[in-house]
Specification:
By secondary structure, the chain is an alpha/beta fold. The chain is built from 16 helices and 17 strands. The strands form 4 sheets. A 5-stranded antiparallel β-sheet has the order 2-1-5-4-3, with helices on both faces. It has a 5-stranded mixed β-sheet with strand order 7-9-10-12-11. A 5-stranded parallel β-sheet has the order 14-13-15-16-17, with helices on both faces.
Length: 553
């Protein structure tokens, strides 16, 4: 009804009540009374009818409101997005069924809980910023990752509106949560594909780089007199480039193992200073070649940690290699070992080209090549920092990077849990292997012959077979102390060779060692089941081979 009609409403209601009363009077008994009493009765009857009519109107309004509320509840509960009402501390005051499903819990059990508890730690600052912004502005939005009952986080886009409170303590906001997990996954997949394409391009370049000097060095060795300066230089080139190739392949394999959770650590208690010192010495030549000063500062007392010293040396080596690569001649790289709040710290700081703040978040990603806007002094796959982070994580530690910007250097900090000092014990004597008889079964003639020559130089008697069947005949004839057998042979697999040899009672004393480019834990287990006593990844580490040959039965 329009505002101009409001004064007529009581009169209209009165007229309608009079009409209804007259209709009733015609049907009811006649009442005899004085005029005043009749008038009073009339007024009461009219008023009663007015109340009845008002009640009817209220019932219709109530029914409409209930229908509207039911419709709103259905829309609220079954909307394609989650709705949640929060107070300034992120306490859940109300949420719909979709919102409860997103959080993976019954709605009744979520009311009163902190919404922040379901937000992943890395995205909680975004939630705090949203709530703070809504204290000043009417609307705000952000992106969050929620901890759900699924296999991974649920990514949502949040649009929130602040409600004007009657009192400050009653402040609240309403937020709509839109599931963007699929869009996020698609974007990540596109980014991953792009980075993998970049990585494959860099990989082909990096694998091709050592081949030219190796090919040239081989040509020199074929024409230069044995023992001449040219021959010695060619040999040094081959050794250096072979180490580079081995490093590239090892980084790739290690990154794959870490991503699949299949890295085997060999933990022991050791002084972190000694590992850092040895690694510094191993990399000193690289810094000298680049004209970069390398400094080391460590405490007077030992810094004991429990971990795999080889893997942690790999971490420090990657950080040093990275510093040498991006520090120009005349620069300085400093390495500091210290203890801070019950943890051991390794700081590697350089005065190199630095990293843009926007790029810092990507430096630990696999396949990521950070663009510093400057020419790279050397190549590389960009796997070192990602590999280092994975190895440090396995030790219960953290690794962080920082930089003040381009041209201002960078710093990487490794933090590890300290361990109590060891009990005093006597050092075990180093054992040298006695001469052994060895058979090598390897279809790569170059690999077999060079491996045989190395073992022969150490005083062992070595014979070679280039396939599985001739290898088994040779082993049965010679009955050696050790058999080093490749897994991928042209006629039989190494597993078949091992099984056949183990079935021969006359060869029980012969120890079988698998040679394979596959070095995952399941590969070692399969080798053990086939009858091998040990497993050595290719290219074989000569120290590991000597340790095997030195072992008694």
């Amino acid at each position: 009804m329009k505002s101009g009609d409001e004064p007529k409403a009581p009169a209209e209601l009165r007229n309608r009540a009079e009409e209804r009363l007259r209709a009733r009077s015609r049907k009811g008994p006649e009442i005899k009374a004085t005029e005043d009493v009749l008038r009073l009765i009339h007024e009461l009857e009219v008023h009663q009818i007015e109340l009845e009519m008002q009640n009817e109107e209220l019932r219709r309004t109530r029914d409409e409101l209930e229908t509207s509320l039911a419709r709103y509840s259905e829309l609220y509960d079954f909307a394609p997005v989650g709705y949640v009402t929060l107070d300034q501390k992120s306490t859940i005051l109300e949420l719909n069924l979709v919102g409860a499903t997103m959080l993976g819990k019954e709605r009744a059990r979520l009311v009163g809980e902190r919404f922040a508890s379901w937000v992943t730690p890395p995205t909680r600052p975004a939630l705090n910023s949203l709530l703070s912004a809504l204290q000043r502005e009417e609307r705000a939005s952000c992106d969050l990752a929620l901890i759900s009952g699924g296999k991974g986080p649920l990514y949502v886009h949040v649009d929130a509106v602040a409600e004007a409170p009657a009192r400050a303590a009653e402040w609240r906001c309403r937020a709509a949560l839109t599931d963007v997990t699929e869009q996020k996954a698609a974007a990540q997949l596109r980014d991953s594909d792009r980075r993998k394409s970049e990585f494959l391009g860099v990989l082909s370049h990096e694998l091709r780089n050592p081949l030219a000097p190796i090919s040239n060095a081989i040509h020199l060795l074929g024409h230069a007199p044995a023992g001449s300066e040219q021959a010695l230089h060619a040999r040094a080139v081959i050794e250096r480039q072979t180490r580079q190739l081995t490093r590239l392949v090892d980084d790739l394999l290690d990154l794959t193992r870490i991503s699949k959770g299949k890295v085997e650590l060999k933990p022991e208690l050791f002084d972190l200073r000694e590992v850092v010192r040895r690694t510094r010495d191993d990399h000193r030549a690289i810094f000298e070649q680049h004209g970069v000063e390398l400094r080391l500062t460590d405490p007077a007392g030992p810094v004991f940690v429990r971990g795999d010293p080889t893997r942690l040396a790999q971490v420090v080596g990657n950080l040093l290699h990275n510093a040498a690569k991006f520090t120009p001649s005349g620069g300085v790289t400093s390495v500091t070992v210290s203890t801070v709040l019950g943890r051991a710290e390794i700081r590697v700081r350089d005065s190199g080209i630095g990293i843009e703040p926007a790029q810092l978040g990507r430096v630990f990603e696999p396949f990521a090549q950070v663009d510093n806007g400057l020419a790279r002094p050397q190549g590389g796959l960009g796997l070192g920092l990602s590999l280092s982070k994975g190895l440090v994580d396995l030790h219960g530690g953290t690794v962080t990077g920082s930089s003040d910007g381009l041209g201002r250097g960078s710093e990487f900090v490794v933090s590890l849990p300290l361990a109590p000092p060891p009990a005093a014990h006597a050092a075990a004597p180093i054992r040298r292997s006695p001469p052994r008889s060895v058979v090598i079964i390897e279809d790569n003639a170059d690999a077999a012959s060079t491996f045989a020559e190395v073992l022969t130089l150490d005083g062992h008697k070595v014979e070679v077979a280039l396939d599985g069947r001739s290898g088994m005949d040779l082993v049965r004839r010679v009955r050696p102390d050790f058999v080093f057998c490749d897994i991928g042979l042209p006629d039989l697999s190494g597993y078949e060779v091992a099984s056949a040899l183990r079935a021969d009672e006359t060869l029980r004393a012969t120890r079988l060692v698998a040679l394979s480019g596959y070095a995952q834990p399941e590969d070692r287990e399969r080798a053990r089941e086939a009858g091998f006593d040990a497993h050595v990844p290719k290219p074989p580490d000569l120290d590991a081979v000597n340790a095997l040959l030195a072992k008694d039965e």
